[in-house]
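Figure-free illustration: sequence to structure, shown twice.
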Amino acid sequence: MNNLSPKVQNQLGMLQQIQQQLQNILSQKAQYEMAMREAKRAQEEISDSADDSVMYMSVGTVMMQKKKEVINTKLTEKIESLELRIKSLEKQEKMMQGKFEQLQAQIKAAIEGKGTPTAA
């Protein structure tokens, strides 16, 4: 790595940063997807129960009795919010992936371009 130009070394550092940001985005996306699956599963369970069933909802550290409609509405809102966050993260993921691939190609071209005259 010492024989690489400062520009290429800088690009390699940027590539590592982009890769780390991409991993963070993927991790957040996985967490949101899991939360959305849980909320959808809860919504399915609620839909199978009778309208007069006793239901509880977690509000902070407290469980409160709520009507089925209220819980269903809150779950629907949560799912919609999570879907928006996931879509936003997917856009960021595509953008970062594009930057990553572009920078990777630049580094590869710089290294190959530098290696060719030396070999000749």
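We now fold a second protein in the same way, so the two outputs can be compared directly.
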Amino acid sequence: MNKDLLQNQTARINLYALISRLTMSEVDEGLLKTIEEDQNIMDFFPNYEKWEKRKKFSRKDLIERYLNVDFTNLFLLHLIPYESFYMREDQMMETGGDNPVQQLYNEYDFRVELDKARVLSGDHIGVELEFMYKLTEAEYKALENEDYKAAGEIAKIEYEFMKDHIMQWAPMYLINVKSEAGTAFYFDLADLALEFIMSDFEYLNKLVKEKECNYLA
């Protein structure tokens, strides 16, 4: 097995997991501590790393005074982090079983605990990225077992989901988040998410369409 391939897959898994978690609910002290103490992660948050308020407030105060307020504005009140809002002509959210994203989740037995995740529908950006996280995990296991056929099939599902869903609306939403962010933390998160999904879609496009990776050759 190509170790570089597995390392790349691990990086994809970790980024989807991190971004999904941070876009789905407020950051807590434990997670913020983990981010701040891991320089590899902090490299994705350059503006937050040098943010002057980090020097003035404890993590608890920083979260309560600034980060939670910004999260509420960007993900709950002011901006709408749902695909159906961007894709429907009437800009109404589709929260029922007719939501095409939910139908896709059902097809692949992906269950969304809406109450636990504090989201109204499965087409929330955090849930869509969690779906990608689960797919990349499954792809990793297939690669680890040298089941290249299965890995390739999962990669195709990832590509189609990115093409038909995430790429259709998430970049626009994340650009809006960058524009409206009131803290360096959520500005950096939006920037990371935008750059990552764009680059990962390019990677999947090459993998599936151009067959640049040996397990799809």
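Summary for the second example: The chain has twelve helices and no strands.
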